[in-house]
């Protein structure tokens, strides 16, 4: 996909965004709901034991696998039950952002970066509450509340990290993430995933590349080598356009 084709797609996509859409309301709605659930769940704990707290990292690991699974086998594979996700992810997100153009240009572009608001409610009512109820019946309320806090934390972790990879270079918000050890490498892994020839085969983890590593789908290209290749490809495309 050429830069011209991407630019055309962006213009067409933006025309489909409702005039009432607000990127800030979109983002804040997700985080108010998510943080509200986390705070409530943690506030209900009653002298949780170390064994009960071990549920937290285990659930975060499970969310990391769910992230990998959904991205690899639903976001980049046409399936009967994942048509909408495939269309939104491969069709929209990967046409809007290419490896050489990863930055959003306006707040309204957040619509193609963030998950729809309804998804956190689907996650909450479809997974958190029913599984939490079962845990409370078998292991007690603490286990259920820690599970809920961890599950939503994993969801928000995904949203924050994915959003951060599309922040414009030089933006004040980028400076916050630049101080986080390893963030530049994680962003670069996502940039490499947005190469058209790699999006269906590599770097499906968005947060931490745990299952990319374990399942052999981790792809790395040194940043300097990548940028050099991008400069050459950009020059060739401009020369071809002339």
What does this structure look like?
The chain is mainly alpha-helical and 242 residues long. The protein has one domain. It is built from 11 helices and no strands. It has helices spanning 3-16, 23-43, 50-53, 55-75, 83-96, 117-138, 141-165, 172-178, 183-193, 210-214, 223-241. Helix 6 packs antiparallel against helix 7. The chain is globular, with a radius of gyration of 20 Å. 24% of the residues are buried.
Task: For the structure shown, list the relevant keywords.
11 helices; mainly alpha; 242 residues
Radius of gyration: 20 Å
Strand content: under 5%
The succession of helices and strands, N to C, reads HHHHHHHHHHH
Shape: globular
What level of helicity do the residues show? 55-70%
Main beta sheet = none
Distance between the termini: 18 Å
Tally of distinct domains: 1
Averaging pLDDT over every residue, what do you get? Answer: 95
Describe the secondary-structure layout.
Blueprint lengths: L2 H14 L6 H21 L6 H4 L1 H21 L7 H14 L20 H22 L2 H25 L6 H7 L4 H11 L16 H5 L8 H19 L1
In short:
The protein is mainly α. It has eleven helices and no strands. The chain has one domain.
